Amino acid sequence: MQVKNMKKTFYYCLIAICTLLAASGCLQAQLSDPKQGDKLEMVVAIVGNDIITQSDVLGYLLQLSQQDQSVNIEDKEMQKKVLDMLIDEKLVVAKAIEDSVQVSEDEVDQRWNYQIQRLVIKYGSEKRVEDIFGMSMAQMKNDFREDIRKQILGDRMKAKLFGEVKVTPNEVKDFFNKYKDSLPVVPTTVELYHLVKNVASDSKSKEELFNLAKAVRDTVMNLGGDFAEYARKYSGDPGTVGNGGELGWAGRGMFFKEFEQAAFALQKGAISMPVETPFGYHVIQTLDKNKDSVKTRHILFKFGQSQEDVEKVKVQLNEIKAQVVAGGSFIELTKQNSDETETKGFGGYLGDFPIQQIPENLRETILKMKDGEVTEPLIFASEPKTSYHIIYRSKTTQEHQASLETDYTQIEMMATNYKQGNLYQEWIKQIRKEMYWEYK
Fold first, then answer.
1. Shared fold status for 2-164 and 203-302
2. Over the stretch 302-332, which tens digit does the pLDDT of each residue have?
3. Torsion on CA atoms 51, 57, 60, 66, rounded to nearest 10
4. What's the CATH class of domain 187-200+306-397?
5. Going by C-beta distance under 8 Å and a sequence separation of 6 or more, which residues neighbour residue 433?
6. Which of 22, 56, 108, 259 makes an SS bond possible with 255, Cβ 3.0 to 4.6 Å?
7. What global pTM score does this model have?
8. Segments making up each domain of the chain, as ranges
């Protein structure tokens, strides 16, 4: 029960980050370490063929309470509001499916990488994220792949309906005049950008790794050994190595497409040749399957990079840094060179960080910098690909009362979100009349 609640907490942590990003346009989500709950799995609503449980509601409330201490998890009225919000989100996804909105596997992978890297920025390292949520990166990706797909479906449906909604300068002014007394003081912030480069796997190392994976696979096939024992000995997946590489049942879309295709193609009990994914080479055994799901176990041979590969990336990043020092535009160079899809188009924009919300592992480095300076290459991620980044401190904005003169862009975004939100609520009222749902 506690593991299930921990998984829900992780997912709502991702939702909270995305919600705050959409609302504020920057990485200002401040999430505390999640805590395990001990609530019964009671169904509180049905939406189409989907359900919402009490722990779904409490998991989301937990995240809200960690961002705002005035939130009382036991408040029945607040629980009702969260439940209605979750019902609305599921209705949006159901409507997106009904309207044949499509999401590709690559889009799911990109969203996953972007969201997990936001958690890495928050908590300091992938190891810290794994420790907090009690799961390996590979296990988290498998467990939450379908949730992320639904998240994208919902986002795409909303964008389809309301993405083109804009506000006029007069509407921005009216919004500000109406709510200016409610707007908080804008704290001292530092605007940060980054440029990410992935470390390529050395082709010789990949060949050697493939040969090792094939040799282990051949040994299992020829000697008839216990697959689980070989997984415990050779697998580089910390989340499954203890139970013989078993991944359990998984529906379509929950694995990388290469892994999924191989798993579904195998007969029950059969073992695949090494299959390549961004994590490495997998030797897969299909234990059972049906039309829509498959039960597998695997031995993961993780990709590694040589020190020479790492140094090549550092040299690339230092050359880009030198161009910035010489007067080049960090934003334009990022658009041309960054390997992070989600931020590349925005010039690597990370956000305007209040001083106290700069990730602890970066705070000292950032605060020692002057506006316009760039860090040395820093480790950014190690799963599924090792990557390094350089961070650009663009400008510092001192604490001030929000005004149209100094914060027009942010206020315009708030006004746009407000207008879109009103239109969304009207649309949801109509959808609630047309689609099946009920409280339990």
1. no
2. 887 777 888 999 999 999 999 999 999 999 9
3. -170
4. alpha beta
5. none
6. 259
7. 0.52
8. 2-164, 187-200+306-397, 203-302
